[in-house]
Amino acid sequence: MPAIVLLGAQWGDEGKGKVTDLLGERVDYVVRYSGGNNAGHTVITPDGQKYALHLMPSGALSPSAMIVIGNGVVVDPKVLLAEIDGLAERGVDVSRLRISGDAHLIMPHHRALDRVVERYLGSSRIGTTGRGIGPAYGDKVARMGIRLQDLLDPGILHKKLELALREKNQILFKVYNRKAIDVEATVEEYLAYAERLRPYIAETRVMLWDALDRGETVLLEGAQATMLDMDHGTYPFVTSSNPTAGGACVGAGIPPTAITKVIAVSKAYTTRVGSGPFPTELFDDNGQHLRKVGHEYGTTTGRERRCGWFDAVVARYACRLNGVTDLVVTKLDVLTGLPKVPICVGYDINGKRYDDMPMTQTDFHHATPVYEELDGWWEDITKARTEDELPENARRYIARIEELCGTRVSVVGVGPGREENVHRHPLLP
Known about the structure:
- The protein is of the alpha/beta class.
- It has helices at about 15-25, 75-90, 110-120, 135-140, 155-175, 185-195, 205-215, 245-250, 285-295, 310-320, 360-365, 390-405, and strands at about 5-10, 30, 40-45, 50-55, 65-70, 75, 95-100, 105, 200, 220, 260-265, 270, 305-310, 310, 325-330, 340-350, 350-355, 370-375, 410-415, 420-425.
- It has a 10-stranded mixed sheet, sandwiched between helices. Strands 14, 16, 17 and 18 form a 4-stranded mixed sheet that branches.
- The chain is globular, with a radius of gyration of 22 Å.
C-alpha cells in the first residue's frame, strides 16, 4: 500500500499520537519527518498506561512496526537516548528504531542561543520551548549544521564543531555575556552518544523505498501542525520546519507520487501554545472550561494551552493546503454540557467578511470571528462507538464541521483512550 501522511490541522496538540497509535498495528513503518523534541505526543494504551513521546515516533508502541526518524528531524541525542531508555525500562521494544544519518543534531550552542535570544526579545518573543530547535534548523539552512552521520567520524565532528563555535561563542560571549562552549568537552560528550546511537543510524530513504516497492504501508507522522508551518503558518509565530504534507516528502525522502492518503487531526475546538494570533481564543469561563475538562497543558512544556472555539477557516485552509482525504476530530466529549457550541465560519476584518485565510499577518491579527451557534448536548458520549450512539446535536456539530471543511470526518474521538472513538469511515482498507 502507498504512503499515508498524518498531520495536525490546527496549531498542534490535536491528538496525532492517539491516531498514530490507532493505526500502528496496521502499518509496517511509522516515520517522523519534521521537528525535534519541541513536539510531544501523548498515547494512552488499552491497559491505561500513559506515554509521553517527544522524539520517538508514536508507532514505538506498536508491537511490530518499524519506527524511523527521518532526515527532516533535528535530534538532541541526550534527549533521544533518555527516551529510548525510558521506553525500554517499561518493556517497549526499541530495537526497531532507525534514524537517518542525514538528520541534523541539536548541539549545546543551539540550546544556549535559543534560551538567551528568547529572553532578550522580551515581550516580542516567539514562545519557543528553548530546546534549540530553531537555531539547529538555522544552521542547517546556513550549511553549518552537524548531522548524525558526523558522529561516526570523530575528525569531521571536531572540525565542524570547531568551525561553528568560532562564530557562536563570539555571539554568546560578546553579545549576550554568556560562557563560551568548550569544543573538546562537547566532542567528548557527543562521541559517547555516538557509541550508543551507532546501531540505529541507517540510510532510511532506501529502507522506505524498498518497503513501498514491497507493497508495505508507510505512515508519515508529522509533529506540530499546519498553522505552525514555516511557510504556510502564522509566521513568525511558527516552528522552524514544514509539518505539512509537502514537508513529509522532503523530511522522509518519500516521492509525492507515493502518497495517496492524507489524514488530518483537529480538536473539536481549538488550542495553541506560545505567542501569535488566535482569532477564536476565549478569555472567559468557556475558555477555562475547555482547558480544565480537556486537560490542556503542553506535553513537552507543561504550559497552559490557549483555548478557543473551533475555527473552520483555519481547518478548511489546512484541508485544502494538505490535500486532506480524511479528517479526525478529537475531544468531542470536552464540549459535553455546554448549552451552545459556536463555530467560527468566517472573519470580520475592518468591516469586510473573509471566508478564507487573509493574506497578510496584519489582517489576521485583527480578525474578529464570525460565529454560527449550534445547540449543545448533555448526554455522556464517552461510551459511543457508532454515529447512531451520539446525541443528535453532537451529530449535527460534526456534520457542520464536515460541511465547512469540505472533507469527510472519518473518526470522532469521544475520550482519551485508544478505543474511545466513533468510526464513521475506515481510515485504512
